[in-house]
Amino acid sequence: MSDLQFKRHRRLRRTDSMRALVRETHLRKDDLIYPIFVVEGEQVKNEVASMPGVHQVSLDYLTEEMNELVNLGIRSVIVFGVPSEKDEVGSQAYHQEGIVQRAIRQIKEENPSLTVIADTCLCQYTDHGHCGIVRDGDIDNDESLNYLTQTAVTQAEAGADIIAPSNMMDGFVAAIRKGLDEAGFSNIPVMSYAVKYASAFYGPFRDAAHSSPQFGDRRAYQMDPSNRLEAIREAQSDVDEGADFLIVKPALAYLDVMREVKDRYNLPLVAYNVSGEYSMIKAAAQNGWVNEQEIVMEKLTSMKRAGADLIITYFAKDAANYLDQ
Ligand code: PBG
Predict the structure, then answer these.
(1) In this structure, how many other beta carbons lie within 10 angstroms of the beta carbon of residue 67?
(2) Domain ranges in the chain?
(3) Which residue among 13, 182, 246, 303 is buried most deeply as judged by most CB within 10 Å?
(4) Options 3.40.1190.20, 3.40.50.300, 3.20.20.70, 3.40.50.1820; which CATH number does 25-324 get?
(5) Does pTM surpass 0.95?
């Protein structure tokens, strides 16, 4: 054996402290952004059937939900509204007293140190369930921009710290940036869902947010899962239009794309660990087929290793608990 030439990689794996010494990727609580679903009404705390542990909450329960996060050391949330009334143009999305605007105001009053991110889209608010305005059976890109901009401005007025447009209309970053600047919100950053695929992994979210399209699908505006170069074109436009953060979504099936975006652009990169990714792990763990804690930490770490600086995840509370152990 003594004449064999090889490297001894195992030297650096011998003990727990040695492994900690050479660990390259670290997950921190500050990396985590927790998504919340707010509904109208009172005393509502509905567990989403396909997302065990995730609830739709009414404003009176929002306080305890936020306090729980703060106690766990989570400092950022992204807010999704589930309005009780929908119409053709999604007017509850940009109403000053819309469910999201009220939720944002309440969170900022009660926990001003939390960073509140507003998801800016129309799909939960339109009766047809599409992310933009429908004209003759098609999503009208440029008309949609006006409604989305108005939505972003009312969210900023309510106190949102970051605007996160997820609708995949062309020019949405440029339109929203201009709208925010004109309304006096030049200091509010845009976290763009720059690279968003038309994905089956969003299924459970659509149950949680009641946002399934009532006809057709989202493939005419969300991206084809087969495409990599298109992701770079999408990210490039959003960088040029003034985005402050880039999101790649979903996360797990798109880690290659995440790495490419990270290597090309120097903006903070956000992984959206979406609903279907959450549900799959929860279901397998409930069956006793995988070790939930280990698998959650491994998956979140893989997103950071792929280049994500931040992770939007329904596992944020679990991960914060694990990090405390
Ligand atoms: C709204 C939006 C969606 C998600 C975030 N924002 C749904 C969709 O595009 O259909 C999905 C999030 C998740 O699955 O966790 N456009």
Answers:
(1) 12
(2) 25-324
(3) 303
(4) 3.20.20.70
(5) yes
- Does residue 1 contact residue 289 with C-beta atoms inside 8 Å? no
ipTM for this prediction: 0.96
Three-state SS annotation for 108-153: HHHCCCCEEEEEECCCCCECCCCCCEEECCEEEHHHHHHHHHHHHH
Furthest-apart CA pair in the chain: how many Å?
77
Residues 6+ apart with CB under 8 A from 171: 141, 142, 145, 241
pLDDT at residue 1, as a whole number: 62
Pocket lining for ligand 1, CB < 6 angstroms: 119, 121, 123, 131, 166, 202, 205-206, 211, 274-275
Catalytically annotated residue among 45, 86, 178, 196: 196
Task: Tell me the per-residue pLDDT of 92-101, one tens digit each, with 9 for 90 and over.
Answer: 999 999 999 9
